[in-house]
Design goal:
The chain is of the alpha+beta class. It folds into two domains: about 270 residues, FAD/NAD(P)-binding domain, CATH 3.50.50.60; about 110 residues, 2-Layer Sandwich (Alpha-Beta Plaits), CATH 3.30.70. The protein is about 30% helix and about 25% strand. The chain has nine helices and 20 strands. Strands 1, 2, 6, 7, 8, 9 and 20 form a seven-stranded mixed beta sheet that branches. Strands 12-13-11-14 form a four-stranded antiparallel beta sheet. A three-stranded antiparallel beta sheet has the order 3-5-4.
């Protein structure tokens, strides 16, 4: 193996849940690995977008008591987060979730990558071009200029299947009206401790404000949840994606820019209005915005196998499965809250290795929400618990070359 400064065994593009798992796993297998991330910290939707629960870690069960679905990196992340927050799994309806705090996620990710001598992290780096000769040739751009690196194998954990676009390879994305709507999450401080009664009362006040014309209609889906830290809550707002749903494009910078501004506008108006309405909210203020809105669905790879919604509903299993998908299909095609479809008998679904291998391209693996699945299956596999598992598998496979 070539061990020069700009040559690596494995390159991982994207440092979200899947990319973090892929890079750490590859390095632990002895592969000299580079992890490329455009932001200044790792964690993706769980940090930059403030998504504050790990979903998909546990089997769906009628019995109380969460049971981990995938061992290895997903289980390690669960243990580390429980130790950091002091919070264990929580039952929400028929599923178990693990509360997580984005600040702790950043710290845990830093500790994980810093512990691996075979792993180099490159923040503030955008991949601008990719080609495959004997090895992968990767062009990286940053504020200091451009550089080129090589890698024997490659993992696309970008979330948007960006490598497919750079290569001109086959990918898919459903029409805009069917895309899962993006989330906008922000932090709020300064209020009294929030309980379930106050959450319901706050939801009623928001409806009252909308009916009176004091708040925009997009505020209807806004909900608040304690963060696990004293005096702090998170507000979560599902956005329609634009003035017309058919105009939503999660890959278009202009569209995303409008979304970011709109999310901040709605959040600000709601918190200001609530502060005038209630003693509970009187001293409340928005303490932090996300780095970016939480895109749930965009472009996906077409791999050697396309996992389908029918596979999820039937709980199908495969000889080459590398992980289990255990989250119900969670459809957020509107901003009016989720619609859940559970598999028959609450069975887990196997995710084949073939979903991580783009058709006809060697030494390339995919992880996270852009693996080879259809729109319905993506509504299940996109959650962070499952992304940890597919990232772990992609990193393990990439390290074999």
């Amino acid at each position: 193996m070539n061990r020069s400064r700009d040559s690596f065994d494995v390159a991982v593009i994207g440092g979200g849940s899947a990319g973090l798992a892929a890079a750490v796993t590859a390095a632990r297998q002895g592969a000299r690995t580079i992890l490329l991330e455009r932001h200044g910290y790792l964690g993706g939707m769980g940090t930059a977008a403030l998504v504050h629960t790990f979903c998909g870690l546990y089997l769906i069960r009628d019995e109380l008591g969460a049971v981990l679905a995938n061992e290895g990196f997903p289980a390690e992340m669960a243990r580390r987060m429980i130790a950091a927050t002091g919070l264990g799994p929580q039952r929400m309806g028929r599923v178990d979730v693990l509360p997580q705090h984005p600040v702790e996620f950043v710290r845990i990710a830093d500790e994980l990558v810093s512990a691996e001598q075979q792993l180099e992290v490159r923040f503030h780096s955008e991949v601008t071009a990719i080609s495959q000769q004997e090895n992968w040739e990767i062009q990286i751009a940053g504020r200091g200029g451009a550089e080129s690196i090589t890698a024997q194998s490659l993992v696309d954990a970008s979330g948007d299947a960006m490598v497919a676009t750079l290569l001109g390879a086959d990918s898919s994305m459903v029409d805009s009206p069917r895309l899962q709507r993006p989330a906008y999450i922000f932090g709020v401080r300064g209020m009294l401790p929030m309980n379930d009664e106050l959450r319901l009362q706050t939801a009623g006040w928001i409806v009252e404000g909308i009916r009176a014309g004091d708040l925009p209609n997009d505020a209807l889906g806004l909900s608040f949840r304690p963060s696990g830290r004293a005096g702090e809550i998170f507000g979560t707002l599902d956005l329609t994606g634009g003035e017309k749903v058919e105009n939503y494009d999660p890959l278009d910078a202009a569209c995303l820019s409008r979304l970011e501004i709109h999310g901040r506008d709605v959040g600000s108006k709601v918190v200001t209005w609530l502060a005038r309405k209630s003693q509970f909210w009187k001293e409340a203020y928005i303490s932090h915005w996300p780095v970016r809105a939480g895109v749930r669905e965009s472009r996906r790879w077409i791999g050697e196998y396309v996992l389908t919604g029918d596979d999820i509903l039937a709980g199908n299993r495969f000889e080459d499965e590398i992980a289990l998908a255990t989250w119900p299909m969670e459809f957020r095609e509107t901003a009016r809250g989720p619609k859940l479809r559970f598999p028959e008998g609450d069975l887990p679904t196997g995710i084949p290795l073939r979903c991580l291998r783009p058709a006809g391209i060697g030494k390339l693996f995919v992880a996270g929400r852009c693996i080879s699945v259809d729109h319905d299956a993506q509504a299940s596999i996109r959650v962070m618990g499952t992304c940890f598992a597919t990232g772990q598998a992609a990193g393990r496979e990439a390290a074999k070359f």
